[in-house]
Amino acid sequence: MVAGGVVYATSGDGKLYAFDAAGASGCSGSPKVCAPLWTTDAFFPTGPVVADGVVYVGSGDGTLYAFDAAGVSGCSGSPKVCQPLWTGRAGPIIASPAVVGGVVYVASFDGSLYAFDAAGVSGCSGSPTVCQPLWTGPTRGSNAHDMRSSPAVVDGVVYVADRDEGDLYAFDAAGVSGCSGSPKVCQPLWTAHTGFVESSPAVAGGVVYVGSFYDGTLYAFDAAGMSGCSGSPTVCQPLWTTNLGFGLSSSPAVAGGIVYDASNSGNIFSAFDAAGVSGCSGSPTVCAPLWTAHIDGGLDYSSPAVASGVVFVGSEGGTLYAFDAAGVLGCSGSPTECAPLWSARTDATRSSPAVAGGFVYVGSSDGTLHAYSLPTPTDSTPPAANPTQLPAVNGSGWNNTDVTVSWNWADESGGSGIDSSRCTTSSLSSGEGDAVTVNASCSDLAGNVGNGSYTVKVDKTAPTLAPTVSPNPVAFNGSAMASPNATDTLSGVASQSCAPVITSVAGVHSVLCTATDNAGNTALASASYTVASPLNAGTTTCTGIYSGGGKDVTVPTGATCILLPGTTVSHDTIVQSGGKLIANGVGFGHDVSLTGAGGSTVCGSSISHDLTAQGSVNGSGTTTICNDDVGHDLNIRNNGGPVLVTGNTVGHDLNVQNNTPGGATVNSNGSGHDATCQGNSPQTGNGNSAVHNNSCPL
Q1: Beta pairing class for 16-20 and 533-534
Q2: Per-residue DSSP letter, 375
Q3: Cβ-count burial of 212 within 10 angstroms (0-12 exposed, 13-18 middle, 19+ buried)?
């Protein structure tokens, strides 16, 4: 056991030893030999466990011992010898304890699991301090004794197996579920039959693994006691099994989704898919190894250890091996067989290797603790990124929010490994654009720096809309269309539309338009439009916008009347003084009279009889009469404001007279009889014609 720069080891002489893990304090010579920092009296201890500055070790004398790991409290003499901080009485103990959550768990030859307060307080008294168990968990069956299995504690459950009865047990680690009485006794949450277990269970990924000595089988069970489990009390069947040969006393090791183990009767070390999938088949499921390796003798109570992608194996034949845990480096063939990355001679190994601080430690049957410096890997290849992003891009390859990039760094197989303290795990993009670049770096343990770059397309801005309605105003019950007129300068407009324009109700209305860009941003905007009022069948007092067909139209003083194209007035249209008429493309059935209506416009219209504009006041705007077809006379007289008379066809007389001081501009008009332009000051124009007399500008 290695903790806090100290190696703790037990020996056949019945003592616990503590050595400087770096091989510095108390060490000399070449090859270097180290004296212990401190020892204990002889009591034939089990393998030690260190937690929170305390070394816990069991003994065949039925006692659990707790020592100060620093070798200070209760320690004296030279060489230094330590007395326990406290002891706890149990049955004979030959397996290492487990310490989790302030509780020490130890299995005994008497067939019971014991739980003690790790602090040596609860249930403890006297001087020297002696502790009673918090609770015990007896195993079942007439031969349920001789427990040589160290407990494994994961997710609030203690797993332990017995030797003679051959069962695996799961207890509530808190000593609550299934527990009662004083002193408290606990019943198992579930059990599973294996057969004569001398190894310790291992738990990883929701599965508990344990090997059976006589039948040589490695078993995998659902750690939750659910899958493959039934009955009351609950009994579980294995998820999968594999056979390693007689004498399976080595505890399995699980790392990186692979479980490693070997028996003591052969020379084969094996690696299996921990999930029981790859290389596994049949019902019940039986698994073949992912890879194997030849070793000089089996594993006799020495369990493999996995660290930094390497699995270390101490054999009964006296060799410490290091294999590539992934089964890649030094491995070939089908089925795959691996050669060691390196090996070292020891003596028959009965303890499990421990890896810490660049050393691997292992004890051998000759009473020697060996420490090997791990080879410095040759690594000149930097880590590589395999970036992924959240949220994912949409169907157009864009995002409309900042993007989190997960870098997923990996070092090459056999490399020094990732230095997680110097690697950017994830990055958040910033800003917008079609090439937003996110950068990161990562170092491996050899100091090689890998750089990652990832580009995303981000548009967080919604499109811009400038909706319009055409025509606007629109005739009552007429046809008009709204256009979104959307623009998006980044990802581009993906779709745009407007609701239908409703023209069945006169007045001012709005229509809603929407647009979505390729990044998924959506914008809304509305456009205003006016629906004309319908003309009356009789006389319409026009004070706004009108369309349709009517008889007479009167525009009162101060009002503006707009008649939309296509409108017809069957009889007279009269604009009172100070009113204004805007008529474009209108059909007038009789006379149009503009009295004092400066600023009026009548263009592109048809007037069956006379069109008269007179008396407008200077400053009230230009009166424009253009491109009209006048059936009889066109009279533009006595207007103080300017008048523009252009492009009209007049059936009889054109009279443009006495328009001053605004004057008159007369262009390109044609008269069926006389064209008279006089008294206008100023007067300009050209291109006018008449069938008879013409005094208008030619």
Answers
A1: unpaired
A2: P
A3: buried
